[in-house]
TrEMBL record:
This is D-aspartate oxidase. Its cofactor is FAD. SUPFAM superfamilies: FAD-linked reductases, C-terminal domain, Nucleotide-binding domain. Belongs to the DAMOX/DASOX family. Residues 119-305 form the FAD dependent oxidoreductase domain. D-dopa binds at residues 204, 259. The gene is DDO. It comes from Macaca nemestrina (Pig-tailed macaque). GO terms for molecular function: D-aspartate oxidase activity; FAD binding. It is found in: Cytoplasm, Cytosol; Peroxisome matrix.
Amino acid sequence: MGSSFAFPLSQDTRPARHCKTSFGARDFGGFQDCFFRDRPMDTARIAVVGAGVVGLSTAVCISKLVPQCSVTIISDKFTPDTTSDVAAGMLIPHTYPDTPIHTQKQWFRETFNHLFAIANSAEAGDAGVHLVSGIKGSGGWMLTRRIDDLWELYPSFDIVVNCSGLGSRQLAGDAKIFPVRGQVLQVQAPWVEHFIRDGSGLTYIYPGTTHVTLGGTRQKGDWNLSPDAENSREILSRCCALEPSLHGACNIREKVGLRPYRPGVRLQTELLTQDGRRLPVVHHYGHGSGGISVHWGTALEAARLVSECVHALRTPIPKSKL
């Protein structure tokens, strides 16, 4: 039997400062007055767009690594309604054709070490990764709203971190990113204690803390978020072939998520300009089915890029001599 680490997401995204809003793009000034009234003038205001495992881990890393900053996570969906909540949460290496192998190994190694430390800590009893706990202690905010244009966040924020996954088709104009639909079944089968996975990885049985995840599908270009009954029958049949005792599973729930696939993770800084305005953006998206496996490593790199942006903002521009 092989071994692996399972880290089912049990993200508690209900901190005291989680606000739902419905105001328009031009009303961010009121948000700015409310949330940043008492901040020091040299505090960098950072918006993280997206609240999946990539967005949450990025916010945590920024709060840990970037001094004198305030972090706000903005998303139209939080747990349990994100793609990350559908994921089985297995730490398995994935390959990105457009990303150097040594970089992928570094991301995976940093993520593995981070999660391995949690697995050997007092939190191991939950076998979960509580990403948001790092943001509560560092004074972060969570804001529920839809962003249709990154310029909506200007001038309320100094830096934007784009962790919007598939939303980057619109927000970043990135035609390289597309959905790979994944449908799974979450069942009650407490007797299943070990994971089982076929050679292709298409069929898998992953036990978690509250349920067992049975999968799955890989449907490229399919945007359908509604469960498909035929997919469910096929998944259950394939998984029962691997583990016949699953015929006795109960409380079967169908879940669908859209993996944000891209040939390579986009992890880079872009300076947006418009009518003399400047908005630094750190793009961090395109993890496909490997978000769980490399999220901490890529989040650390994204935080380093944010730190560079903050340093640039605080560095006076030399005046040219005429």
